[in-house]
Amino acid sequence: MELSKHFADISSGAIQVPRTDILPDQEFLSQADDIKEYCNVYKRNMAPFCKHYCASIPFVFEEQCRIGMALLRMARCLPDEQVLTFYETDSPDGTSARTLAELASGKVITLTNGLHTVNRKKFEELCRHPFSYFYLGYFCDITPQLIRTLPNSNVFADGFDVIYENVTFQFYDKDRLEQIAHLKKVMKDDGILICLEKLHQIDAAQYEKREQVKDERYKSLYFSTTELIWKRSKILSDMKVFQVDYETLISSLKQHFSYVYLLWNSTNFYEMAASNSLQKINDFLSFLPLPFIPKEFNFEDDLIAPRRV
C-alpha cells in the first residue's frame, strides 16, 4: 500500500518532480524529420509520472519515441481498412499510447491501464483525440471478457497487434512465464510483445555498478541527492523483490515465442521484442530508427541492430 501511495504522489506531481526538462538528444533527432515531430508530441503529452519516468531511466525518452516511431510507420503501411491495436500495461498516464494514436490519426487505436484516479484524470486532460482508451485497474484485469465491456470493444475483440509491457511484471511476482501467458490471451496470434524490464545481474557488484552509473551520471541531472536517497530506500528496495535476471526473462519469452530479439539496454534496464510471426517481427524491426544510448550506459555488445537471442 505504501508503494502504491508513493506512485500516486509521483503521478500527481507532489513528489519526485524533475528539476529541469528532459530533452531528447540531437543526435537521435537528426535521423529524420518524423522523429523530431514524434519527440515533440511525446514531450507535449507528458504528464508528471512520465516526466519522472524519463528522468529516472537513462535515455528512455529516446527509446519510447523510437518504438513509437516504428509502430507508427507500420500502421501507415496497413491497408486503408485496417488499424493497428496497441496496449501498454500499467502506464499511469498513457503518454506513449496517446502520442502514437495522435500521430496515427485513426490508424492506431490504443488501450492503457493505470492504477490511480489521478492517472485517469491526467490521461483525460491530455488526450486530444478519440483513438486512445483508459482502464482504471490492474494489467491482470485485462482479459478477453473484460475487453468486451470496454467502449469500442469491437476494435480490440480479436486481440492486440502489439502489447508493450512497461516495467510492469516486477510489481506483481516473479512468474514471467505465467505473466506472459496472461498477456497472450489478449494478443493476436501473430502479434508482437515488447518487454521493458529492470533485471537482476548474477553478479551483485555489477548490478550496483550500473545503478551508480544511472544515479550519478543521469538521474543527478534531474533530482537532488536527498531525492535519490529517498527513492532508493522507499521505492527501489521494494521494486527489486520481484525482478528476475536476463536468462529468466529470455527463457520465459522463448517458451511462448519463436522469435525473440534484444532491442536496447540502459544500465540494468533491458528491452526485448518477441513474436510467433517472422513477417510481423521483421516488419517491426525494419521500421526501427537507430537507437540512442551512450556507451557508458550500455553494457551489452553493439545494439545498433536488434540482436536475436
Automatic annotation (TrEMBL):
Annotated organism of origin: Tolypothrix tenuis PCC 7101
Stored SUPFAM superfamilies: S-adenosyl-L-methionine-dependent methyltransferases (SSF53335)
EC number: 2.1.1.-
An example molecular function term from Gene Ontology annotations: methyltransferase activity
UniProt-recorded name of the protein: tRNA (Cmo5U34)-methyltransferase
Listed InterPro entries: SAM-dependent_MTases_sf (IPR029063)
A biological-process GO annotation: methylation
Keyword annotations of the record: Methyltransferase, Transferase
EC class (word): transferase
